[in-house]
Specification:
The protein is α/β, with parallel strands linked by helices. It contains 11 helices and 13 strands. The protein folds into 2 domains: 47-157 and 253-362, 2-enoyl-CoA Hydratase, Chain A, domain 1; 162-213, no CATH class. The protein has helices at 20-27, 47-61, 79-91, 108-121, 136-142, 180-193, 201-205, 211-232, 239-251, 262-267, 277-293, and strands at 64-70, 94-102, 122-129, 146-149, 161-162, 178-179, 272-274, 297-302, 305-317, 320-333, 338-342, 347-354, 357-362. α3 (79-91) links the parallel β1 and β2. It starts with 19 loop residues before the first helix and ends with a strand.
């Protein structure tokens, strides 16, 4: 049987051309670019402009000037004590000093510490109040030999409320603040309206307000009176008058935010007089600049991520400005249904004029 001939080609069979582009894609997969972040917004720092207003104020007042300003989200706190010390060290001891106060309040103990510092740097302290000066800020103003109030100015009561670990819960499951004034009014109302042989009012209150909360509220109320007495003692030697003022501010007003105007402040025994119109206008101009610095700057990256920056507290004197700036990212965790902070660079910052230069730095509190 004959073997069939096999025709051998001199050229190898032609294979299909490989797709080199596909091979390159497999070897080097494309990188996923993160979404481009928006340019982060931050509030303006108006040091040069505020310094010009302060220079005009010092020229008119003929003495050293210090600003203490809180935004709506700021408050009187212990860190302010170190901040105001930085301003006072720059100014040095002064025979007379003007303190501009604008604040909704905070820690009364921080107010006492600031008064103690201010009194070590000046023999005569005058507080100027063009706008609100409430709660712990009122305590700060009590440390001045004299308070000067503008047409829009008001002080407030200094009674303390307390959100204790055993305080009642509200509908959002948050601890409710309880004040001494609220408790005493409730007890008095019970005693006036209910028969003598009925149940003890405290027995009826205890199921709603824990006894330890009532004790803690009494304690912080005593603390408020003590703080006012100690602050007033820096310039008021009449202890009976100081005690009367302290008791009035702690228990004579039906609301913590009751506006104590110039006339009312004089009535309770404080040394208060009207603020000169030109000084009031300059202080309102300075407040406007601080309010511009204190505006909230939010940068939205997407529905679940943003950056928030805001200046809360500003302390300033001739040649120096110290402020606290919040500077952080916020991320919404969907599985937990809450916002969390990331990349928190919030810190105290300092701007100082050194010769002809303006030097910016982080101001280290702790």
């Amino acid at each position: 049987m004959l073997t069939p001939l096999v025709r051998v080609s001199a050229r190898p069979p032609r294979l299909p051309t490989p797709d080199l582009s596909l091979a390159m894609k497999i070897a080097n997969p494309p990188t996923t670019r993160p979404p481009k972040r928006s340019r982060i917004k931050r509030p303006p720092v108006l040091f040069n402009r505020t310094q010009r207003v302060i220079q005009r104020l010092e020229t008119d007042l003929r003495c050293a000037f210090v600003s203490y300003w809180n935004s709506n989200n700021g408050s009187v706190c212990q860190n302010d004590v170190v901040g105001i010390y930085g301003v006072l060290r720059k100014l040095g001891p002064q025979a007379r000093m003007i303190l501009f106060i604008k604040s909704d309040g905070g820690s009364g103990q921080a107010s006492l510490m600031m008064v103690n510092l201010l009194r070590q740097f000046t023999r005569r302290l005058i507080a100027v109040v063009p706008l609100e000066c409430q709660s712990a800020a009122t305590m700060l103003a009590l440390g001045a030999d004299e308070i000067q109030m503008g047409p829009l100015a008001h002080l407030s009561a200094v009674d303390t409320s307390l959100a204790h670990q055993l305080s009642p819960l509200d509908r959002d499951n948050e601890r409710v603040s309880v004040s001494q004034d609220e408790l005493m009014r409730l007890i008095r109302l019970w005693q006036n309206e209910v028969k003598r042989d009925s149940v003890n009012p405290y027995q009826a209150i205890f199921p709603y307000i824990h006894p330890l909360v009532i004790g803690a509220v009494h304690r912080v109320s005593s603390l408020s009176v003590k703080l006012c007495m100690e602050i007033l003692s820096y310039h008021l030697k009449d202890r009976k008058k100081a005690a009367a003022i302290s008791q009035n501010l702690n228990s004579s007003y039906p609301s913590h935010s009751y506006p104590i105007t110039l006339r009312e402040a004089q009535r309770i025994g404080l040394k208060v007089r009207p603020l000169a119109p030109r000084i009031n206008e300059l202080l309102l101009e300075l407040n406007e600049l601080y309010s511009e610095m204190g505006q909230r700057a939010v940068t939205d990256f997407d529905a679940f991520n943003n950056h928030d920056s805001q200046i809360y507290n500003i302390l300033e004197g001739r040649g120096v400005q110290i402020f606290y700036q919040s500077d952080r990212d916020w991320h919404y965790r969907k599985e937990e249904r809450r916002w969390v902070t990331l990349n928190d660079h919030s810190t105290w910052r300092k701007i100082e004029r050194v010769g002809t230069r303006t030097v910016r730095s982080v101001y280290h509190i702790s």
